[in-house]
Design brief:
transmembrane helix, transmembrane, about 220 residues, 10 strands, binds zinc ion, membrane, alpha+beta, Znf_put, 3-stranded antiparallel β-sheet, about 45% helix, Putative zinc-finger domain-containing protein, single chain
Length: about 220
C-alpha cells in the first residue's frame, strides 16, 4: 500500500482507536504506522486533545446549568417569600377580620329581675357589625357573652351600636332546672370581664313598667 493510503486509513481508524473500539490487530498496525508517521501522530494528538475537550466540556456545562438553576431557584424562592409576606401584611393591615370588643368598650345596662325570676340585661357596644355572640356555659352554670367586631386592623368605624341579648336569661334553666351562677361579658380574654350578675348579688326588681313590657313581650 502507498503511504498516503495508509495514512488515510489510519486517520479514518483513529477516532475508533481513541475510543478503544478497534481490535488488537488493528491497534498493532496503527501503532506501527504511528511510530513511523509524524503526520498521523499529529492528527492523533489533535483528536485526543479534541476528545478530551469534549469530555471536559459537558461537566462544566452541567455545573453552569446547576449554578443557573440554583440561582433561579433562590430568586424564585425569595420572590415567593416576599409575595407571601406582602399578602399576609396586606391582610393584617387591610383585611377585614373579627376583633373581640374589649370590656372597656361595652356598656351594661338595664339590669333588673322580673317577678318570675328572669334576669334582664342589655349589653351595648358602639361598633360596626358584630359577627357573633358567644354564649358558653362554663361549669354548666355561667353564661358568658362576647361581641366580635368585623373590621380592619386600623379602620374603626363607629357607626352603629350593637345591643344584645335580645332574649333574657332566667336564673333557672327551664329545661334542666339548673341554677345559673353568673352572667358575664367577656372582652379580649378571660381577664377582661364584666360581671353582669353573680349568685348572691342583689338585682333591682323590675318596675311596673318593665314588668308590663316583659309580660307584653311574653304575649300574656
Ligand atoms: Zn500516516
Amino acid at each position: 500500500m502507498e503511504p498516503r493510503l495508509n495514512c488515510q486509513i489510519v486517520q479514518d481508524l483513529l477516532p475508533n482507536y481513541i475510543e478503544g473500539l478497534t481490535s488488537d490487530i488493528t491497534n498493532t498496525s496503527i501503532q506501527e504506522h504511528l511510530a513511523t508517521c509524524g503526520e498521523c501522530r499529529k492528527v492523533l494528538e489533535q483528536m485526543t486533545r479534541d476528545s478530551q475537550e469534549i469530555k471536559v466540556v459537558p461537566p462544566k456545562h452541567i455545573n453552569f446549568l446547576k449554578k443557573v438553576k440554583r440561582r433561579q431557584l433562590i430568586i424564585a424562592g425569595t420572590s415567593v417569600t416576599i409575595a407571601v409576606a406582602l399578602l399576609i401584611g396586606a391582610y393584617f393591615l387591610f383585611g377585614t377580620r373579627d376583633f373581640p370588643v374589649p370590656a372597656s368598650e361595652a356598656k351594661i345596662g338595664e339590669v333588673f329581675q322580673t317577678q318570675d325570676g328572669t334576669i334582664h340585661y342589655r349589653i351595648t357596644a358602639n361598633v360596626k357589625g358584630f359577627v357573633s355572640r358567644v354564649s358558653t356555659h362554663g361549669n354548666g352554670h355561667t353564661e358568658v357573652y362576647r361581641i366580635f367586631e368585623h373590621r380592619q386592623l386600623f379602620t374603626k368605624e363607629k357607626e352603629s351600636a350593637v345591643t344584645m341579648p335580645e332574649s333574657w336569661l332566667s336564673t333557672k334553666n327551664t329545661k334542666t332546672n339548673q341554677e345559673k351562677t353568673g352572667i358575664y361579658f367577656e372582652g379580649i380574654n378571660k381577664d377582661d370581664r364584666i360581671t353582669i350578675w353573680e349568685k348572691g348579688m342583689t338585682i333591682p326588681q323590675a318596675t311596673a313598667e318593665q314588668e308590663a313590657a316583659y309580660q307584653k313581650y311574653l304575649g300574656r
